[in-house]
């Protein structure tokens, strides 16, 4: 994050500064809005906040999610079946204003946003208290004009860096992302992995060389050991998606909020405890 | 509709016909809407393709294989009995078939599969993936992979596997692994999504031989350029056969590769009418069709902006066509552009009209066209009565119908 005196800090910036001062790793769970339904999503969001999430990435479902593995694909199908659409997701967040105070970052493929009207979407999302936007099919070249619109509505468009991204391009992306840099930890789609690739350590180091943005690592992070490793390697945040989504799908409606809350606690503990797990 | 097409709709200058732009756009369409992981591979592919076309060795090898392995050039055949059938009092539409069905593997698809396999080898990638709908692109890809000793994985929807079992068997016989795709509608759209996900996961070792003029830049250009041989030969053969350019080019459009291959060398010859025919399934006013250009709206699918069948919330809708190869809710971005600027016209015909055309061409010419191709033939019914003077029409006879006989037998009363 390159902050000049004229530039005001976004909600995401403030959150990362605060965490940095307290030497804490940002814990950012991902869930799909409307999975299993929007009422439950609302309860889950509050439970995640209560049990230690620092930010939440909230997915808007799309019929053809190219960057997602089977777990999140199926979650998107369930969410679409429960009638979820961008308007309802924004409405839900509006209803949580005052209760849900941590930064909410919406995750959506570009097409539903274009169909809604990108500018209109940003305006409504911003009014509902949304802090940022992640669009996985919007690489740097296509992102410039959208990033401006997002910023005009006091939100951050967060860009992704992948293991395949060359060094020079890493620099360009880091200079244009807002809030933080999303480091994709695997060459692949979202989904739980058994182990973290060791090259992630190098990627974090490289990213730190090119920019002072906070770095949050996502894709494949599924266990307390992974979270611990990411912390040891010097990242500022960790994004956990499929591991949460899988627990949502395998829980009954009665237990889902409790189960997700417990898993979040476990991840919080891993994020806070140094060297608990052998690397 | 062709009959209501007006010449005043044309609104383009030379720059509109010389695309894509550097950033991969055809007007407002095209672009690169893919996960960051793929961007370096797309840049690599763009450079590799551009260098290859400048390399005489590459072009010579491609041309040599097109001749000796694929069987090019394909004939331009005068369909005299079809011509007779469509003759009216005021005009005789002379109908010519560009016989892409005579290519090795039975369709135009191999032009692109061969070219991209050579590109993959240049890039040092030994694992090939592809999507397929009707199975023609899958067979063509499996064929070239066998020819060059490349590992080949084909993604195919479970629905399509059912209706194209012959092609599934052919792919397996050629040594390819056919991966069944059950997600979504289990057709070409989902097979393409799954192929892209594979590519995201294995991009460092794998080349994705995309089979249509769709997907992120540079695919629409690469695929078009490998198929442009269809139009180039046609141009030369028209001059040889009747001493002028054709008046009308006609081709079916799913993603639009055979149409783009035929149209491309003629795009700047603005006297030549370009007509693409989409699949209307049960009818464009039902919810069971694949007429993307006719009924779609601007959206993003599989990495590029184009016209798209989608609902009010931007969710991609299911397409329907009796022909697996046209059963796709998107279309190549260059077609959307040619439609917007009025350079090409697009119509659609129903499943039944395509079946009737398949039967007619089989009986009159002794050629069983693919169900996809039959959509182009079916348009003659609507086009020919509107012609006021003698006209040379070239139809891209893009594929043979052997693969479709089971589908046809259950639909036609033979």
Topology:
The complex is a heterodimer of chains A (279) and B (414).
Chain A: H1 11-21, E1 26-32, H2 38-50, E2 56-59, H3 70-81, H4 86-95, E3 104-107, H5 110-116, H6 118-127, E4 132-134, H7 140-152, E5 156-158, E6 160-161, H8 167-176, E7 181-184, H9 199-210, E8 215-218, H10 224-232, E9 237-240, H11 242-249, H12 256-272
Parallel strand pairs in A: 1-2, 1-9, 2-3, 3-4, 4-5, 6-7, 7-8, 8-9
Chain B: E1 25-26, E2 29-30, H1 39-54, H2 56-70, E3 76-78, H3 80-86, E4 93-98, H4 110-122, E5 127-132, H5 136-148, E6 151-157, H6 158-163, H7 165-173, E7 177-181, H8 188-202, E8 206-208, H9 219-242, E9 248-252, H10 257-263, E10 273-281, H11 292-295, E11 297-301, E12 304-308, H12 333-340, E13 344-350, H13 351-365, H14 371-378, H15 380-383, E14 391-396, H16 405-411
Helix pairs in contact in B: 2-4, 4-5, 4-9, 5-7, 9-10, 13-14
Structure notes:
- The complex is a heterodimer of chains A (279) and B (414).
- Chain A has 279 residues and is an alpha/beta fold.
- Helix content of chain A is 47%, strand content 13%.
- Chain A has twelve helices and nine strands.
- Chain A has a nine-stranded parallel beta sheet.
- In chain A, strand 8, helix 10 (224-232) and strand 9 (237-240) form a beta-alpha-beta unit.
- The longest helix of chain A is centred in the C-terminal third of the chain and has 17 residues, at 256-272.
- Chain A is globular, with a radius of gyration of 17 Å.
- The model of chain A is unreliable at 1-6 (pLDDT under 50).
- With 414 residues, chain B is of the alpha/beta class.
- Chain B folds into two domains: 50-68 and 109-219, 3-Layer(aba) Sandwich (Rossmann fold), CATH 3.40.50.1100; 73-106 and 228-411, Rossmann fold.
- In chain B, 41% of the residues lie in helices and 17% in strands.
- Chain B has 16 helices and 14 strands.
- Chain B has helices spanning 39-54, 56-70, 80-86, 110-122, 136-148, 158-163, 165-173, 188-202, 219-242, 257-263, 292-295, 333-340, 351-365, 371-378, 380-383, 405-411, and strands at 25-26, 29-30, 76-78, 93-98, 127-132, 151-157, 177-181, 206-208, 248-252, 273-281, 297-301, 304-308, 344-350, 391-396.
- Chain B has a six-stranded mixed beta sheet with strand order 3-4-14-9-10-13, with helices on both faces. A four-stranded parallel beta sheet of chain B has the order 7-6-5-8, with helices on both faces. A two-stranded antiparallel sheet of chain B has the order 1-2.
- In chain B, strand 5, helix 5 (136-148) and strand 6 form a beta-alpha-beta unit.
- The longest helix of chain B is centred in the middle third of the chain and has 24 residues, at 219-242.
- Chains A and B meet through helix 3, helix 5, helix 7 and strand 6 of A and helix 1, helix 8 and strand 11 of B.
